[in-house]
Design brief:
The structure holds two protein chains of two kinds. By secondary structure, chain A is an alpha/beta fold. Helix content of chain A is 44%, strand content 18%. In chain A, the strands form two sheets. In chain A, strands 3-2-1-4-5-6-7 form a seven-stranded parallel sheet, with helices on both faces. The radius of gyration of chain A is 21 Å and the shape is elongated. The model of chain A has no long low-confidence stretch (mean pLDDT 94). Chain B is α/β, with parallel strands linked by helices. Chain B is 52% helix and 14% strand. Chain B contains 14 helices and seven strands. A seven-stranded mixed sheet of chain B has the order 3-2-1-4-5-7-6, with helices on both faces. Chain B is elongated, with a radius of gyration of 29 Å. Classes of the chains: A alpha/beta, B alpha/beta. Chains A and B meet through helix 7, helix 8, strand 13, helix 12 and helix 13 of A and helix 1 and helix 2 of B.
Chain lengths: 363, 348
């Protein structure tokens, strides 16, 4: 039996990439390959789903063994894989350019820069590069990866309906909505590359010129304490403390409640390698207004309103248009639902297995 | 029931038109965006600064490593354990801290000395960043209407989006829009941009490089480069051209509207030319650059921005001789000092 084992920096629940690793493992096993996950660290409920990466000693004698390295940040796992003799597949989820973090979190910037260097080194070893998006694939080509296949992140969209919204939170959000004002939502880590400060600017313009009772919910943990501190001070200086909620990391149930209550999903991010929250918004039939940067236009397709600029007044005007135009809203949510079908887990699994089989051979 | 279908491109245009109209009526005050930018910048940490001295100061602060070992704990017994460990390793900890701090201080001192040397070199060799700051203070001396006709001719039959970078006060952009082209401007100076926006033009407040980076590859039918190509250093001009080329659709056009080196620094551009870090290129150089990048040169027009000296009437007894001399003086003083060079991208 041929083995195709995954090597990952971190395996954690409530993380789209973490779910991808498990889905890849299942897809490979279903295709007849032997497959385990080896990680630098595995967290919380996923602790027992991965083996320590240093415990990998190679495949059984006479058994073909391949290593799939998932690249998203600098990691000693990459150096370990580079030091092995087995053929390698690199699954690239994009590494945020370190320039976004250099000013805010120099240590994180260093890790990201290390990740990019490791990705470049892996090019000579990689028999295949897998990319979540054509945007990511372009970066692999630029690093001289010879063979690259685009396979969307394996994301079980049907799991989005598996949790019930947090009832207490949903009640609170609905009570606020009953008092008037629209609810803007963004889901994603508070991070310089996601540019939540630009979102706050647009929201300030919207409150000032369109809807003084509107609310903005920024849902997600943080990748930079310095950035979130600056963001909080910015919100206070704009006298928006009562209108902007920075939630921190939340449960799936709470996230579901925020999507249920949202009138609009707005994203002003500068850099995304794929952007799973767009799929979540599509699933919850929340219309999307997005700034067209990095892989966002590609993931969004025609499933939302993509803007070529993100100056606050234009984003605010776009939000007002979508919220105030029932026909446009219906069209955008319908288009979102249609776009979501393109990321159907079964077809993405087939694409992944076909790409892997193309280099590894049959199980 | 089938869901309604909408033309999102049209929705985007309506939104942009609405914003332009609200800006034009003053409902959206000039400088609204920049004030928000400045406010957020106030909360950026010191290390987020581009200022060299602030960055070194931050490094010097970070060099001071805490000698006191933290021993507090929420868990019973762990605090005591930490205190014991701190006691046991205290001397070694201090020993290492002193060495690491000394190393850090030596490095930051060396960086400071290096900074001073770079300052000296910049002062003696010409400090492009200072020149850039100083030239930004000087009101730009431009009358872009000079290029109107030639640029409109160069854009003939363009059907897609046209970006005019820089748009200045909007004179050239207005001519392009009046010619029926789907054009917008890019202008980094708030006062000029706000003035143009107030007249109903679509202008993005950004510099040419920053804006073109945000545009998807192949999205533009044409890019007009004006103003910035006169002031930028050659290396930055080449980067800008490559960036603009990457944003053009197959068959797209790149149009350069510039003063010539002969015209740069004469008359109203004297101060700007003295302080600018770069200078305009010759029209022939653009032709060469275009050819090297897979463009077919479709326009190369040179013209004078000043009227020639008025000739004597033919009835004057010495008209023939003097007019010949005047024509030569005119050509010398007021000859072609501006040009438009346009290329069509022939490769995908």
């Amino acid at each position: 039996m041929t083995s195709v084992h995954q090597f990952v920096p971190t395996l954690a629940p409530r993380d789209a990439v973490g779910g991808h690793y498990l889905a890849v493992r299942d897809a490979l096993r279903d295709a007849g390959y032997s497959s385990e996950i080896y990680a630098f660290e595995a967290k919380d409920a996923y602790k027992k789903l991965a083996l320590p990466f240093r415990s990998f000693e190679g495949g059984r004698p006479g058994e073909a063994t391949w290593l799939v390295y998932h690249s998203s940040i600098g990691s000693p796992v990459a150096d370990f894989v580079l030091g092995r003799r087995e053929p390698v597949i690199v699954d690239y989820h994009n590494i945020t350019p370190s320039s976004f973090f250099a000013r805010w979190e120099p240590y994180v910037a260093g890790q990201l820069a290390v990740g990019r260097r490791q990705l470049a080194k892996l090019a000579v070893r990689a028999e295949l590069g897998l990319a979540d998006s054509a945007y990511n694939a372009r970066e692999l080509h630029e690093l001289d990866y010879e063979r690259v296949a685009v396979v969307p992140i394996l994301f079980d969209t049907s799991s989005l309906g598996a949790t019930e919204p947090d009832p207490a939170l949903l009640d609170r959000l609905r009570a606020a909505k009953n008092r008037g004002g629209a609810d803007w939502l963004f889901v994603g880590r508070i991070s310089p590359n996601k540019a939540q400060h630009d979102l706050v600017k647009a929201f300030a313009a919207y409150r000032e010129h369109r809807d003084p009772q509107a609310r903005l919910h920024l849902v997600g943990g943080t990748s930079s304490h310095a950035y979130v501190t600056a963001l909080e001070k910015f919100v206070t200086a704009l006298e928006l403390d009562d209108a902007v909620e920075i939630t921190g990391a939340v449960s799936e149930e709470a996230k579901h409640a925020y999507y249920e209550a949202a009138d609009l999903f707005v994203i002003c991010s500068e850099h995304e390698g794929f952007c799973v929250p767009l799929l979540e918004a599509m699933h919850h039939r929340v219309p999307i207004v997005a700034y067209a940067a990095a892989a966002v236009p590609e993931t969004l397709g025609t499933g939302g309103l993509c803007l070529p600029v993100k100056d606050p007044l234009t984003v605010a005007a776009a939000a007002a248009r979508v919220i105030g135009d029932a026909g446009l809203r219906a069209a955008l949510t319908a288009a979102g639902t249609a776009r979501l079908a393109d990321f159907d887990l079964a077809s993405s699994r087939e694409r992944l297995v076909a790409a892997v089989r193309g280099v590894v051979g049959p199980a | 029931m089938s869901e309604p279908v909408v033309d999102l491109q049209n929705v985007r245009r309506e939104i942009e038109a609405e914003v332009r109209a609200r800006r034009a009526t003053g409902e959206y005050p000039p400088g609204f965006d920049s004030k928000l930018d400045e406010l957020f910048a106030r909360f950026s940490p010191p290390e987020a600064s581009d200022d060299f001295d602030a960055a070194v100061e931050r490094a010097e602060e970070a060099v001071a490593i805490d000698l006191v070992i933290p021993v507090a704990s929420n868990k019973p017994g762990i605090g005591l354990f930490k205190r014991v460990v701190a006691k046991l390793i205290g001397w070694y900890h201090a020993f290492i801290v002193q060495q690491v701090s000394a190393l850090g201080a030596a490095i930051t001192h060396a960086v400071r000395l290096l900074g001073m040397r770079v300052d000296q070199i910049e002062r003696s060799a010409g400090h492009s960043e200072r020149a850039r700051v100083e030239s930004a203070r000087v009101p730009t001396a431009r009358d872009d209407a000079t290029w109107n006709d030639a640029v409109v001719r160069a854009l003939d039959a363009c059907r897609g989006r046209v970006a005019v970078c820089e748009a200045g006060d909007g004179a050239l952009l207005r001519a392009v829009v009046h010619a029926g082209l789907d054009a917008y401007g890019v202008e980094p100076r708030f006062d000029l941009a706000d003035g143009a926006i107030a007249t109903g033009l679509e202008v993005r407040i950004d510099d040419a490089v920053g804006h073109l980076r945000s545009v998807a590859p192949g999205e533009l039918e044409a890019v007009v480069l004006r103003g910035c190509v006169e002031r930028l250093p050659v290396g930055e001009v080449l980067d800008l051209v490559d960036l603009a080329t990457a944003r053009l659709a197959p068959g797209g056009r790149l149009v350069i509207a510039s003063l010539s080196p002969a015209g740069w620094g004469r008359g109203r551009t004297e101060i700007e030319a003295d302080l600018a870090p770069g200078r305009p290129l010759h029209a022939a150089t653009w032709t060469d650059l275009f050819t090297a990048r897979g463009f077919e040169v479709v326009t190369s027009e040179q013209f004078a921005t000043n009227a020639p000296i008025t000739e004597l009437p033919a009835t004057h007894p010495d008209a023939s001789t003097l007019n010949h001399a005047l024509a030569r003086i005119s050509a010398e003083l007021f000859g072609p000092d501006a040009y438009v060079v346009a290329g069509r991208l022939t490769r995908a």
